[in-house]
Automatic annotation (TrEMBL):
It comes from the Eukaryota. It comes from Panicum virgatum (Blackwell switchgrass). Its EC number is 4.2.1.3. The lineage of its organism: Eukaryota, Viridiplantae, Streptophyta, Embryophyta, Tracheophyta. GO terms for molecular function: aconitate hydratase activity; iron-sulfur cluster binding; metal ion binding. Belongs to the aconitase/IPM isomerase family. InterPro entries: Acnase/IPM_dHydase_lsu_aba_1/3 (IPR015931), Acoase/IPM_deHydtase_lsu_aba (IPR001030), Aconitase/IRP2 (IPR006249), Aconitase_4Fe-4S_BS (IPR018136), Aconitase_4Fe-4S_dom (IPR036008). This is aconitate hydratase. Keywords: Iron, Iron-sulfur, Lyase, Metal-binding. Gene3D superfamilies: Aconitase, domain 3. Residues 66-458 form the Aconitase/3-isopropylmalate dehydratase large subunit alpha/beta/alpha domain. It catalyses: citrate = D-threo-isocitrate. Its cofactor is [4Fe-4S] cluster.
Length: 474
């Protein structure tokens, strides 16, 4: 947008680089000289910066900017604001219909006698092909290659359409099959954290056609899931109308004990937030505990926003975020620009410096040292049960009335055993037997530590099974 038509063009400031040059320009929040801004949550700052940068007096007005700056009052009044995200992310199941719609718009341009090449996304759109993989081949070194070949054969027509789209449209990137799940690719590769578009710097923000888009909040990128129509509108440069949300501050302090996993932490956080009530709100994590919380653990918590009901669970950018960017291949210059911009615009958290106490709609806190190993269920993720109480809880669930914490099994049937043949061997199951256990959620696949732990548990199970079968054969 032409900054000359922006009433906040006076806030456009040059960002100096370390060598005396300039990284580019940005809309400085400090230049507004409004003391209300200093205590706004980081999530609200992202909304504010977008409104200032895109303010044109038509789609986004000065009154909209004022509503956001006055968040402490307006967040309780259910006021609506326009928001333009920095980009859109799609996966193949929802992305193909979007691509077809854009192709239809090009056909209509041809019918009207105009140039079809004018139809392109106005904001960057990334499409990751990841939802069509079926594991036909397993337990083989060639499993990945064999499954990929089957995938290409089954989806030949759809992939041909996507291949065309990757060259036909500007401002659209299509990630081919076999690169990983959309949310992991977003975290490790697509996430910009700070955009540099023709010398204009601004925070990365994203909406996606998947409820798990929220995982990106672990990297300090504000994002959440939307429907296909909303995604298309955003791609066409239309602002999203949203209720200015309340923000729940969640303070973390202490450090996780040895043996406590990200899964234990996320189940504890989910239970607390479900009890507190965060539907339609942002959750913003802060506190000294973040300095010791790995980014993979943050992503695991952010991914679970759907379970605790929030629009997003946000972790502001700090040194842990920068280290992750370097680890995942972002070059030093890019990371330097990200840090310089966020520090200049008061969006970076330095745990070694005094922190400004920010305003929140309400607050929770958790001492990470008190998180203990736990499981969820038997039916809902927020029905957290400490591991030490699992046996007692399970027995109670068997007898309880049928519901979320009950199966209604009569007492005389609770010890029932059923025998059957398995590969020529006699086996038996009873209530509580583990028939199948698997990790299929991107909540866990985002976290290497949890994945390795699950692999070790699986291996231990195989060894125990092998030992028991050997004893039977002997």
């Amino acid at each position: 947008m032409d900054s000359k038509g922006n009433p906040f063009s006076f806030a456009l400031t040059s960002l100096a680089s370390g060598d005396g040059g300039s990284y580019g320009s940005y809309y400085s929040l400090a230049a507004l000289e409004d003391e209300r801004i200093d205590k706004l949550p980081y999530t609200v700052l992202v909304l504010l910066e977008s409104a200032i940068r895109n303010c044109d007096g038509f789609q986004i007005t000065k009154d909209d900017v004022e509503k956001i700056m006055d968040w402490e009052k307006t967040s309780d009044e259910q006021v609506e604001i326009p928001f333009k995200p920095g980009r859109v992310i799609l996966q193949d199941f929802t992305g193909v219909p979007v691509l077809v719609d854009f192709a239809s718009m090009r056909d209509e341009m041809c019918r009207l006698g105009d140039d079809p090449d004018k139809i392109n996304p106005m904001v960057p759109a990334d499409l990751v092909i990841d939802h069509s993989v079926t594991a036909d081949v397993v337990r083989s070194e060639s499993a990945v290659q064999a499954n990929m070949e089957l995938e290409f054969e089954r989806n030949k027509e759809r992939f041909a359409c996507l291949k065309w789209g990757s060259t036909a449209f500007h401002n659209m990137l299509i990630i081919p099959p076999g690169s990983g799940i959309v949310h992991q690719v977003n975290l490790e590769y697509l996430g910009r954290v700070v955009f540099n578009t023709n010398g204009l710097l601004y925070p990365d923000s994203v909406v996606g056609t998947d409820s798990r888009t929220t995982m990106i909040n672990g990297l300090g990128i504000l994002g959440w899931g939307v429907g296909g129509i909303d995604a298309e509108a955003a791609m066409l440069g239309q602002p999203m109308s949203m209720v200015l949300p309340g923000v729940v501050g969640f303070k973390l302090y202490g450090i996780l004990r040895n043996g406590v996993t990200a899964t234990d932490l996320v189940l504890t956080v989910t239970q607390m937030l479900r009890k507190h009530g965060v539907v339609g709100k942002f959750v913003e994590f802060y506190g000294r505990g973040l300095a010791e919380l790995a980014l993979a653990d943050r992503a695991t918590i952010a991914n679970m926003a759907q379970e605790y009901g929030a629009t997003a669970g946000f972790f502001p950018v700090d040194h842990i975020s920068l280290e992750y960017l370097k680890m995942t291949g972002r070059n030093d210059e890019t990371v330097s620009i990200i840090e310089a911009y966020l520090r200049a615009n008061k969006m970076f958290v330095d745990h070694d410096e005094p922190q400004i106490e920010r305003m929140y709609s309400s607050c929770l806190e958790l001492d990470l040292r008190n998180v203990e190993p736990c499981v969820s269920g038997p039916k809902r993720p927020h029905d957290r049960v400490p591991l030490k109480d699992m046996k007692t809880d399970w027995q109670a669930c068997l007898a309880n009335k049928v519901g979320f914490k009950g199966y209604g099994i009569p007492k005389d049937l609770q010890e029932k055993v059923v025998k059957f043949d398995f590969h020529g061997q006699t086996a038996e199951i009873k209530h509580g037997s583990i028939v199948i256990a698997a990790i299929t959620s991107c909540t866990n696949t985002s976290n290497p530590t949890v994945m390795i732990t699950s692999g070790l548990v699986w291996l231990q199970g195989k060894l125990v099974s092998w030992a028991l079968r050997s004893q039977t054969m002997d």
